[in-house]
């Protein structure tokens, strides 16, 4: 229903409760003039809707929704549980999270509730039900957003400890109070180490120190905290589905944020939305926004929305670079090209009060529609031209990268390698993300679209699967990957792939364990390299170039695999840096070192693609991104200039460029931050 | 009375309680031989004066004061409340401050009391009253120092929370228990944001996280903590005034320390003193000591004292560079030149015990009068020659810089721009101070004296007023600044000037808001630049030079203002870096970017001075500071060499150099760290 | 008895409780094949030996010991008190240490017990007694290790405070409850400073902030915490001695770890062992492993064991460089050369579970004997050839360096100099260790063996004594050092030597105090240099070279001493950088600055050695270490190549190289990481 009018939704995040009532009509007029057709509202308005416990006031929101409806604008409402009202904290102090130091956090920032607090869960259900009941039949309400940017906090209260013990009891056997399954937990966590065997569930304490506690305990604690968020959302979704069956339910995710298992969080939703803020430091290729978009699309394997899109420089205490002319348009097109069917700018006005005074919107502090408003309006107008071609299209690709939250968490707990002068948790997460980035960026440079998928996904639809740093690998996953290769797939693995089992124990096998046959190698030793160390690497057997290994090195022995690159050190001259193995009708690649130069990954991707027999529709020049949406017999090519110079490039001739409505000649010039959308068929 | 003998006071901080009694007489003799006429004493001697609760022992101090009197030395006594005795902490544990983590600080360092503790306030009043009663008629006692270096700590106990709520109730309306004025607070803090509206005063919690809590709440919390210190001092001043009407009361401030509103703290005092430690890192122009001196003089608009002057390298755990030959003399002259009528070296001996064993005094750990003692004695002898000329003189200047603690605090809470790799609070304070420094240092280099003034000061006495980074600007201040320009003043503003109102809400106007007419510009957009970013800037319309914008950039549109410098970037070519606007009979300048090169500010100051029709008496060569004291028909020029090379310069001919007592020829050579004092008329 | 078979012990740390029982027999076979004759076991197996309070299970360990015995392998058992079982933490929560923030640490990491907890001490005694009783007559048990790597934690509970007050009462006078001796503490701590005088013992609080609390209080708190560890060990040693008189008792120390007074901890033991992990960053001369070995040998003045020797890259969360081919052999020989009669690799297998999954052993996660196993086996085989020559030999040298824990602690509390951008505690410890390193490394480069000795040692057996940074110097020590020089010794002192007395008060004398005559100098001033500062230094009077003073400078005046190097700065041209003083029949050297260049220390050592009339048996080429073990009429020279290039050098001709069993010609080539052992006589 809500997609009836337009396959592409475009609009803005809107907070009427921040604004004097006499501006509301003008706001709606300006939105309409901009071509907007949707707003998100109310996700921080708990105290406005329930000023005192049990007393509700929705009149103001009804009023605002009606004004928006008068101007053809639909709305999404957020459940407001990301910020509890002050009265909740005062009446129910146990709803505030307890820090690892044992003191309760002081109310006044966001996301400060304990997720095992029964009181908080009941309060959350009550306001959600009250909203659902009240707004179920509001005509221009099209959907719901649960809470806001789930992700914490981690609470160390006694209730959390008790629930964690219960959760473990469920996970490792019977949920009864008997301790009969504790042995299973002792085994899964390897509590023989340091004599940490538990005699009763009640002995289990919370791991305050991820660099010191048992890694298996830490991993389950991370899983538990992720599950607490998922459970909290499920409570709300249950109510919304029952009361508002015609509305969609989504949540605004945070791209590469990795404290929660986003696959789990997405499961209960209709589609994924996310919040995209790629402008800040010096201008450059917005690689991470592309990677994050592919991760977001991968959460449910379908198109997504942007629920908060950079409208200006964001910041709580300070702000960074202002988006340059045409840059927020470019940002929007990049997401559209990766599957964003909704684009909602954050935010309408720039708030004059509170912690986000520097989160700049389309209007300024002066309430004037600024340059950025006009750029957003231009995008909205262009969307209307693109809609016919883009309806029912999405990204289709032969190439996937496995993206796995449990491996990220294992790296967070044990970064494996890296400088000791850096926060270990962040280092671990970065080790993983950088591994992903190395391949994803090389694929972007090659003009390839990529699916980011869970380890549990069906691999058979892909010709190539990258599994970088896939740290946690249960045996069935290793078997599945091997079968994929045997059946003709191309698999690319690298350092720390397949090291651990599902509870973070080390596999008791020579690396790469069950993947040894598929990869044709064995690894008996490996090492981390300090920041002042590097090894020379030289291509061989047709793989050319000289490179530099940094950070990490496996000592890889080829057993049947062909050596494509060699380490140039006296003590490693018998070991390979890169191998390629023919296995069944597929290939298994292994990169045993992290390489400094992009050119290495470009060469690797080129080799992989040649063997996979795939090539991009267009090989973009440096700094230009190419992405293709397909479906309903159509194929639409997006070309996006990430540089601040005009770029001229060859494109297919005689096609239609949809924004300008002109046919393509063989050559096309993209302006600074310029965009072209070409209907290939 | 206390100024009767000498208009210039010179001496040392003295701790007889640290020393065996048989040294006291020799101490006084050595002080007398050095030409000292004043000491400060007793500010850490609470336990010596009140060994047990309610039992007083002043005999030792009477004895010491008498010995000093015998040698013609006057004394200042400090109230000893900066360090509570161990018995206070044990008997009244609630007097110890509570950390944000909820645990009480352990006794044994300084400044560890809670300022809302009724017990502590009563204990403070009692020891102050006992001292005042006892010493009221001591002949050589001339004045009092309250406490020591006010500035904390911030306490998170329940009493502080309750007092904060009361303080807010008073600030935002009626002080009664009724909640009728809470709406005013909700409005002033913009609690509509994130649904933070309060229903009762009791819901207000303390902001433990300045980077996350509501900025308006944080600002009031900072004001409240400043006020707690001011109130604590007022309690003591009240007693001292009543009992010792003939004594002055001062406090030792800390220069550019900015956690308290020093204007408020100075209000109850006769004059300001401060503690000056400018020697540490590699030798260079002691800019900050000059800036701080001008701030200190500005607190009450009159001359000040140095209560602690660098006698040697200071340090609790480690020490830095030792002052070089003649350097502590140079330090003293710099302060004298900026208005210091008292100079008290810290400290007499170098203590053999406790946390300040490395705070080096005039005597060594061996109790011998060292080189630095002899240099101090030389200064004292020279002071006697200078007194006749300096009596009743101070700095008089046409140039002021507005120095505003509330703007500093707003930057502390929201730094606005700067690298994220730095403590945000410190970054914010540095952003402000660096803005001040850019102008103050350029004025120093130009040979100009400067008054540092509060926003509330009368501006009409100045030809030029700089208002850098004046973040908080109530409307009446904007009107006042505009009127100042209209009436012929020259106003220089820059980035983030006038952004916020008195409760840290953003003004809902296009920047620079009410200053737009006076400055002839508008600013719709602005941005922070990451540390790897910069913009080229080029002078125009007679303003010459090529510069580099860093850190921050307003996108300034001139509306009538003349553009003096332009940003050289494709996306900013229509925006100005520096403007000058004729408004009424004055000029409004606006510098929209932070510039890396000193030359930019030198050129700006030159342009400003030309339009103001002012010029320095002497244009000092690089590394030399010039300052003038005037009064009683006299004008005294100080020339101070900050370099380690002799500097030869042109000076007015036929005047008297007062230290050497010789007439000036047209040329004068200052030795390394050399000083000249020339009676111009 | 335990030395009967072999003077050299070699083996591995072994955790049968981590492994399935069916591997135990194979483990023992592989160990035997490797030539191992000893294992250490059980130091983390409390929960295995006492699964529930008071119920013991030693059967599994009996079984494992029997299997090992069958293969000729002896065992050392650790008391398991470094990790309490989970049931201890749950039943006796007061045994967990209290953090400075007041919350109790959460069980699950190591070393988390409070050492004043009576419950913990009783539990420790009980498990120790149960083990001793059970294993007293196990034939292949040869000795005990107390606990594991003593060193914490520091606990802030009320019991610790009470015990600290009691400990102070004992230290400063009568142990009765009367306060009559509190004056002595007030004097020893200089509590006159900041008015910190105590009226009752109960007023003494714990110093949570080493950068703010009284340094004398901090020093005694550090001593107290060291003593708590020593007392805890003594409780166990008492039981072990009584029950197992035929077994040795040792502990695994941690080299340059300095939180405990290792001399005290060593006193109750038969010999010292330590844990050596010198491989990690880029390859280089393993200086610190040599320095630590000499410190360890010095703790009791006799040979020592390695209880944990690098078998692979270690790490809890991440790992560093993998030892290169032959490198763990080189590491073992370096320790043997410095007096290690036992070498136990850590660890047998690489654990698949828990926090040390990345602490790599001789077997991999796959349980296969890796390259490193074979290298260890080679070393064991070589040891059998070397034993006859090495029996009853140790290091004998004319050169000592004083190594003093109390001076380290004083630097930890007050680093004296160094950049403020660094953790002060670590900086202080590094200041001391770097001072030690400068001399020790120069002596290593000169081919000299060195004894590291306590200040209390007999000096008369040494021709040269270095006393770098000997911060704490009671008068009797200064007298002893002076007498040492007068009687013909050569003493080398440097910055901060002799500054403080035994309770961290500053000596009230001109530096170097009582050493002034012996050194022929005086120092009235000194300074710390910021990281951007340095002074030129030039040799004179036959001491050649140009150098750079950094970090610290005394302003040294020679009074009779000969100036060997001069500071080249305008303000220091009358001060010396290096002096040599003839005093009695000896020499006193003083280096007043820290010098950047190694060449300065090489030249100084050369000058010292010439005046001492000593020279090394062999002057090793760069990168090669030479060490000599002597005894029983034999003299054995070790040559160890720290570089990754072969090195050819001259050696005494016609001697026997013991590993190859070949006679030496005049020239010998060491391979990469190569080792030669030459029987000189």
Q: What's the CATH topology label of the largest domain in chain A?
A: TIM Barrel
State the separation between the terminal residues of chain A, measured CA to CA.
Answer: 28 Å
The major β-sheet of chain A equals: 11 strands, mixed
Q: Structural class of the secondary elements of chain A?
A: alpha/beta
Quaternary structure classification: homotrimer
Indicate the proportion of strand residues of chain A. 15-25%
Q: What's the CATH superfamily of the largest domain in chain A, by name?
A: Glycosidases
Low-confidence stretches of chain A: none
- Pair of chains with the largest interface and how many residues each contributes: A-B, 59 and 59 residues
Helices and strands in order, then pairings?
The structure is a homotrimer of 681-residue chains.
Chain A: E1 9-13, H1 24-34, E2 38-41, H2 46-49, H3 59-70, E3 74-78, H4 86-91, H5 118-135, E4 141-145, H6 158-171, H7 182-189, H8 215-243, E5 248-250, E6 252-253, H9 262-267, E7 273-276, H10 287-300, E8 304-310, H11 327-338, E9 340-346, H12 371-390, E10 399-402, H13 405-413, H14 424-445, E11 451-453, E12 464-467, H15 475-486, E13 490-494, H16 516-519, E14 521-528, E15 535-539, E16 546-558, E17 562-567, E18 576-583, E19 586-591, E20 593-595, H17 598-612, E21 624-631, E22 634-641, E23 647-650, E24 656-657, E25 662-663, E26 667-670, E27 675-679
Parallel strand pairs in A: 1-2, 1-9, 2-3, 3-4, 4-5, 6-7, 7-8, 8-9, 10-11, 10-12, 12-13, 13-19
Antiparallel strand pairs in A: 14-16, 15-16, 15-17, 16-20, 17-18, 18-19, 21-22, 22-27, 23-26, 24-25, 24-27
Helix pairs in contact in A: 5-8, 8-13, 10-11, 13-14, 14-17
């Amino acid at each position: 229903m809500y997609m009836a009018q337009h396959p592409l939704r475009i609009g803005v995040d809107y907070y009427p409760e921040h604004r004097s009532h006499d501006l509301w009509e003008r706001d709606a007029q300006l939105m309409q003039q901009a071509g907007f057709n949707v707003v998100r509202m109310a996700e921080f308005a708990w105290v406005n809707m329930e000023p005192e416990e049990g007393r509700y006031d929705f009149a103001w929101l009804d009023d605002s929704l009606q004004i928006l409806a008068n101007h053809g604008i639909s709305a999404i409402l957020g459940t407001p549980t990301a910020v509890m009202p002050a009265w909740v904290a005062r009446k129910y102090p146990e709803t505030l999270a307890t820090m690892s130091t044992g003191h309760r956090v002081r109310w006044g920032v966001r996301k400060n509730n304990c997720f095992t607090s029964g009181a908080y869960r009941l309060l959350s259900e009550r306001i959600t039900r009250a909203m659902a009941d009240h707004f179920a039949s509001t005509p221009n309400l099209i959907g719901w957003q649960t809470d806001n940017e789930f992700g914490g906090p981690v609470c160390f209260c006694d209730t959390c400890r008790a629930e964690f013990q219960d959760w473990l009891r469920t996970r490792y056997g019977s949920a009864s109070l008997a301790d009969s399954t504790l042995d299973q937990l002792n085994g899964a966590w390897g509590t023989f180490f340091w004599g940490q065997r538990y005699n009763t569930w009640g002995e289990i304490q919370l791991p305050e120190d991820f660099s010191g506690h048992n890694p298996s305990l830490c991993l389950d604690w991370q899983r538990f905290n992720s599950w607490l968020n998922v459970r909290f959302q499920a409570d709300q979704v249950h109510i919304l589905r029952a009361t508002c069956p015609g509305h969609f339910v989504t949540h605004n995710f945070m791209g590469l944020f990795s404290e929660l298992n986003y696959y789990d969080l997405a499961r209960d939703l209709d589609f994924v939305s996310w919040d995209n803020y790629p402008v800040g430091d010096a201008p450059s290729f917005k690689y991470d926004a592309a990677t994050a978009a592919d991760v977001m699309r991968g959460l449910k394997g379908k198109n997504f929305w942007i629920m908060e899109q950079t409208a200006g420089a964001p910041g709580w205490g300070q702000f960074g670079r202002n988006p340059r002319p045409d840059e927020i348009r470019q940002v929007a097109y990049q997401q559209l090209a990766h599957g964003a069917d909704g684009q909602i700018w954050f935010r309408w006005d720039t708030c004059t009060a509170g912690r986000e005074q520097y989160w700049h919107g389309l209007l300024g502090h002066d309430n004037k529609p600024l340059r950025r408003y006009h750029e957003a309006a231009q995008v909205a107008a262009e969307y209307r031209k693109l809609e016919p071609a883009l309806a029912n299209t999405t990204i289709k690709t032969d190439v996937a990268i496995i993206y796995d939250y449990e491996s990220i968490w294992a790296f967070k707990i044990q970064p494996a390698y890296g400088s000791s002068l850096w926060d270990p948790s962040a280092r671990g997460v970065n080790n993983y993300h950088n591994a992903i980035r190395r391949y994803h960026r090389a694929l972007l440079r090659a003009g390839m679209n990529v699916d980011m998928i869970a380890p549990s996904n069906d691999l058979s639809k892909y010709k190539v699967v990258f599994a970088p740093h896939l740290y946690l690998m249960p045996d069935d996953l290793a078997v599945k990957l091997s079968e994929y290769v045997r059946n003709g797939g191309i698999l690319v693995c690298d350092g720390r792939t397949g090291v651990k089992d599902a509870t973070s124990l080390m596999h008791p096998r020579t690396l790469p364990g069950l993947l040894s046959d598929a990869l044709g190698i064995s690894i008996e030793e490996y090492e981390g390299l300090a920041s002042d160390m590097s090894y020379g690497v030289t291509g061989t057997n047709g793989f050319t170039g000289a490179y530099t290994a940094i950070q990490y090195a496996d000592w890889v022995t080829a057993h049947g695999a062909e050596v494509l690159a060699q380490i140039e050190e006296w003590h490693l001259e018998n070991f390979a840096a890169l191998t390629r193995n023919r296995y069944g009708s597929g290939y298994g690649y292994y990169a045993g070192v992290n390489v400094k130069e992009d050119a290495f990954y470009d060469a690797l991707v080129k080799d992989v693609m040649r063997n996979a027999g795939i090539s991009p529709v267009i090989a973009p020049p440096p700094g230009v991104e190419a992405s293709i949406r397909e479906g309903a017999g159509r194929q639409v090519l997006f070309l996006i200039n990430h540089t601040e110079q005009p770029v001229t490039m060859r494109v297919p001739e005689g096609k239609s460029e949809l924004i300008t409505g002109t046919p393509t000649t063989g050559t096309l010039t993209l302006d600074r931050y310029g965009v072209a959308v070409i209907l290939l068929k």
